[in-house]
């Protein structure tokens, strides 16, 4: 049985779609996590408009939904800003983590739903956020742990904000989800079934509870507590008929 928060969020998605249709304007959700995106896909058939998703860059995990009415007559963009923060004094900067940056943002009283992905590349800290809070963050986020930082708004499309991957290759019995989960988390197939049936596995942002689901090339598989992966397909079979597979792990 669904909890009340899930029911209300589904209703919110439908209301946003109706609002867009009634007013002939594009309306937007906040940034959504995997659970929330899964709830959206459960209601997508009830939308009165078409929709698009974006997190500000390719492979973004937290994404915003745009509800787009028919016969739209104006150009629009997702209200997403990309902010680049760097240490004010690089020589004395700490090695910061995703948790450090997120903690500093939460200490400013920002709702998590207004912040998208946070990407760290050396001493470059990229923060995707709603346009409406971008200036506030630039003014207010001056320190992460003991490191003083300075920020600027940038055009994400002109930056090399890339998702990095670790390539994993192995041999599995088939492309069933339980086999792939077992391979990437390094546990038995029976343990992987428990993870799947415990609602800890998402494929392409949708919750999958059937261990018999057949993974397709380019499927994005998220496993709570173990990370996110792309099933890159099979390069053939062994003499015993097992599959040689390649999987890319988000790092």
Write a brief caption for the model.
This protein folds into 3 domains: 4-68, Ribosomal Protein S8, Chain: A, domain 1 (2-Layer Sandwich); 80-158, Alpha-Beta Plaits, CATH 3.30.70; 165-250, RNA-binding S4 domain (Structural Genomics Hypothetical 15.5 Kd Protein In mrcA-pckA Intergenic Region, Chain A, Roll).
State the main characteristics.
Alpha-Beta Plaits; 3 domains; 6 helices; Ribosomal Protein S8, Chain: A, domain 1; 251 residues; alpha+beta; Structural Genomics Hypothetical 15.5 Kd Protein In mrcA-pckA Intergenic Region, Chain A; 5-stranded antiparallel β-sheet
Mean pLDDT value: 95
| Portion in helices | 25-40%
Question: In one word, what is the shape?
Answer: globular
Number of helices: 6
Largest sheet: 6 strands, antiparallel
Distance between the termini: 35 Å
Second rung of CATH, namely the architecture of the largest domain = Roll
Give the uncertain stretches in residue-range form.
none
Strand order of the largest sheet: 9-14-13-12-10-11
State Rg.
20 Å
Summarize the helices and strands and which ones pair or pack.
Blueprint: H1 4-23, E1 27-28, H2 34-43, E2 50-54, E3 64-68, E4 80-87, H3 98-106, E5 115-121, E6 124-130, H4 131-140, E7 143-144, E8 147-154, E9 165-172, H5 177-185, H6 189-197, E10 201-203, E11 206-207, E12 220-223, E13 227-237, E14 243-250
Antiparallel strand pairs: 1-3, 2-3, 4-6, 4-8, 5-6, 7-8, 9-14, 10-11, 10-12, 12-13, 13-14
Helix pairs in contact: 1-2, 5-6
């Amino acid at each position: 049985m669904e909890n009340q928060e899930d029911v209300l969020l589904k209703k919110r998605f439908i209301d946003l779609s109706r609002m867009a249709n009634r007013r002939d304007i594009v309306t937007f959700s906040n940034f959504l996590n995997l659970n929330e995106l899964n709830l959206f896909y459960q209601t997508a058939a009830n939308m009165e408009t078409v929709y698009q998703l974006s997190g500000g860059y390719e492979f973004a995990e937290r994404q915003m939904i745009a509800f787009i009415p028919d016969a739209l007559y104006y150009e629009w963009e997702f209200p997403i800003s990309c902010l680049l923060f760097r240490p004010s004094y690089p020589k004395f900067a700490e090695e910061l983590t995703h948790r450090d940056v997120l903690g500093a943002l939460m200490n400013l009283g920002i709702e998590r739903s207004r912040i998208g992905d946070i990407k760290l590349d050396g001493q470059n800290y990229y923060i995707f956020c709603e346009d409406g809070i971008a200036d506030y963050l630039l003014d207010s986020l001056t320190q992460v742990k003991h490191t003083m930082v300075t920020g600027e708004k940038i055009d994400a499309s002109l930056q090399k904000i890339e998702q990095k991957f670790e390539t994993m290759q192995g041999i599995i019995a088939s492309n069933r989800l339980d086999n792939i989960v077992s391979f990437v988390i390094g546990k038995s197939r029976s343990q992987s079934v428990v993870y799947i049936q415990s609602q800890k596995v998402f494929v392409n942002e949708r919750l999958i509870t059937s261990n018999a689901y057949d993974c397709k090339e380019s499927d994005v598989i998220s496993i709570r507590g173990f990370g996110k992966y792309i099933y890159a397909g099979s390069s053939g079979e062994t003499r015993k008929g097992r599959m040689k597979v390649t999987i890319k792990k988000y790092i």
